[in-house]
């Protein structure tokens, strides 16, 4: 339950809220079609990339899904054990297990981004081992090339990206907040409900050469298995067995960048929507790859890696993308936001009527936030003080186990500054009672904020409908078209 301030929502999302009932709004993201498809066929000079949705998986018999289209799969919210158990073959010291809850669903790439897809967005293919069909993963892409070295280097303080980066171009041409996955999102998507070393539900039989690993991805010991092969050992995405959510190449092929700063230990305390450390020297990578030193143990679901600076290039490092919920929004339907898109910015500059409506909306939204934020902060402060009181009581009684449990919750709360989504069934009764009593007023505040923001955006949407009519009557067709296109994008998001 985050308490970050409300941010500006793009016109499409505001209209989505305005033209649907509140119940539909709350479900818009969570019940969307299983797959999102970004059409890149217009190339790097296209003004926008159309986005469509379907419940049908990609047809691997045609290369389009690997080249001209970016396919993403919807992954549900949920809780999982991140890291590896102590007896997992090939386990590393930095794979401590902790329970992680992801409160919002997200779309994640069905495949790593391929050479042709990267080229269609950026106009160039930086890969060391280029291939004609370009359905192989792009490599020699740095973190900075993907997100940028300016705004893009500020995660987790900011989720901004540089306009000229791969994600900057993709955001501007789709209106969607595409990004890299966090480590938690990557492992959660990779596992797809499994707790084994591999997402097939199987463990390794050997840390080096393993037939179970050979089923799910390209790695050092199956370069000659007849499933294709190119320089550096990579092969076409989708050549091996997918996981239960239809995601390919999570094991092997290329090592994949994640958002987070890499730290040696993620700790064992439960976490909700973790973003990783606030600073560091290298970014995290996952997936293992297929280079000449990548044995089976280095491709496990829990395997964590980091050996490159953010501007470094390597012939076995690529990435896949996600569509993330907007930071600070607790409802999935409000999770597709970002700054105003290009069409809305143009409209804001050229249409005085729209600008006036936008300013009223923004001021009202900030007023609502300023009124409720201190109440959120007060609830969190009360929870913090109560935890400290519980700790003192347990210490005075000499109850060491209870004291350790309370201290663990204090540390989790101090790091995340968020309440748990529900009372922890595994912890002591005093904390469970405290959590339940704190969550109730917090939830009431959140519902109040959502209700008031929904009512505000509904009025805003009605005003925009009137503006569209007025612009059309006045012959301002360019501005009217921009409003109409944004409205249609919003409708597609909630269909």
Written overview of the protein:
By secondary structure, the protein is an alpha+beta fold. The protein folds into two domains: 32-324, paralog of FGE (formylglycine-generating enzyme); 342-494, no CATH class. The chain has 13 helices and twelve strands. The chain has helices at 11-18, 22-27, 64-67, 115-122, 143-147, 166-174, 183-191, 211-216, 342-350, 352-396, 400-416, 429-474, 477-494, and strands at residues 35-39, 51-54, 69-75, 78-82, 98-102, 106-109, 178-179, 255-261, 271-272, 283-286, 317-318, 322-323. Helix 1 (11-18) packs across helix 13, helix 10 runs antiparallel to helix 11 and helix 10 (352-396) packs antiparallel against helix 12 (429-474). It is flat and about 60 Å long.
Secondary-structure blueprint:
Elements: H1 11-18, H2 22-27, E1 35-39, E2 51-54, H3 64-67, E3 69-75, E4 78-82, E5 98-102, E6 106-109, H4 115-122, H5 143-147, H6 166-174, E7 178-179, H7 183-191, H8 211-216, E8 255-261, E9 271-272, E10 283-286, E11 317-318, E12 322-323, H9 342-350, H10 352-396, H11 400-416, H12 429-474, H13 477-494
